[in-house]
Design goal:
The chain has 313 residues and is an alpha/beta fold. It has ten helices and twelve strands.
Length: 313
């Protein structure tokens, strides 16, 4: 099993924000009290950016389109993507916008996130031109529920991408309003690969059982892989159920692991690997990303992912 092939060109459309990651919090904060953390790092954040950087780390040609402010956080994110080899030529920092920020606070048992959406809510599907689609072979979108401006035109954007010959993928992310409106199920009719985690899929489908939820999102086109953290990942593919375990690594921080999973899965899928092998690539890249603090500090290379996958009997 190998992925040393001609790179594909992936267009990632999505939100840009910086992550302030507080690791090893002695407790999660409560009003009126202060807690200490053992470590802190400022890293590129957002589901879309973490996935894009994971794809670039694996050797793919990646272009990113989104909105950001002409502020310190925007400058930091722009430089991080440029340094990763991502095409950021369409990004235009604006003094009228503020770049989003997420504070991630983790204890050994749990994690809490606080996000200022900033510019991420202002991106609209109409801003992605035909020329951008024509220059890509695949379109990936993350954070469906967070991107309030993009969401109404998301289905049409996927349809335009399909008409232009691109394959498509979507990671829904969490719905902060916890309304889980079923417009996403209609959007999926224009999507090839759907990459929710277990909590998200159960909420989107209003199902209490994972396999019932997988059956609920079957529409004759979309293939779904469910990320399950330490339990690995599960999929119902061509009427057959697949389960791939998580890989054992010395985990430090799980921030962005699901987004690195997306990168690994798509890297393999776009090279037409067997479905279960794509799941293994996703699981390996998600697991390897937990070796460092923040979502992008220790993302996998191809050699690292192949070595980890090769350890499995």
């Amino acid at each position: 099993m190998t992925a040393h092939e001609q790179p594909v060109r992936i267009l990632v459309v999505g939100e840009i924000n910086v992550d302030f990651v507080f690791k090893g919090c002695h407790a999660l904060p409560v009003p009126g009290k202060e807690v200490l953390a053992d470590d802190f790092v400022m890293t590129p954040g957002s589901s879309s950016m973490i996935c894009a950087m994971g794809l670039a780390r694996l050797g793919n040609q990646v272009a990113f389109h989104g909105l950001l402010g002409a502020d310190a956080s925007g400058t930091f994110c722009l430089k991080a993507m440029r340094d990763a080899g991502i095409d950021v030529s369409s990004l235009q920092p604006s003094h009228a916008l503020r770049t989003g920020v997420t504070a991630s606070l983790s204890t050994p048992q749990d994690r809490a996130l606080v996000t200022f959406a900033g510019a991420m809510a202002e991106l609209h599907a109409e801003a992605i031109g035909d020329a951008q689609l024509a220059s890509a072979t695949h379109l990936h979108i993350s954070s469906y529920y967070l991107q309030k401006g993009l969401r109404p035109g998301c289905r049409e954007l996927f349809a335009r991408a399909t008409s232009a010959g691109l394959t498509t993928s979507l990671d829904p992310g969490f719905d902060p309003a916890q309304q889980w409106d079923d417009d996403l199920l209609e959007t999926l009719r224009e999507v090839d690969v759907f990459l929710p985690n277990e909590q998200e899929l159960l909420a989107i489908t209003a199902c209490g059982d994972l396999h019932a939820a997988l059956r609920r999102v079957r529409n004759g086109r979309t293939h779904t892989v469910v990320k399950r953290g330490r339990q690995g990942c599960t999929s119902l593919y061509e009427a057959q159920s697949f389960n791939v375990p998580a890989y054992s690594v010395e985990a430090i921080d799980t921030t962005g692991a699901g987004d690195s999973f997306d990168a690994g899965f798509l890297h393999a899928w776009l090279r037409r690997m067997p479905w279960v092998d794509c799941m293994r690539w996703g699981s390996a890249c998600g697991s390897l990303s937990t070796r460092g603090v923040g979502g992008t500090t220790r993302q996998a290379t191809v050699n690292e992912a192949e070595a980890l996958i090769g350890e499995t009997p």
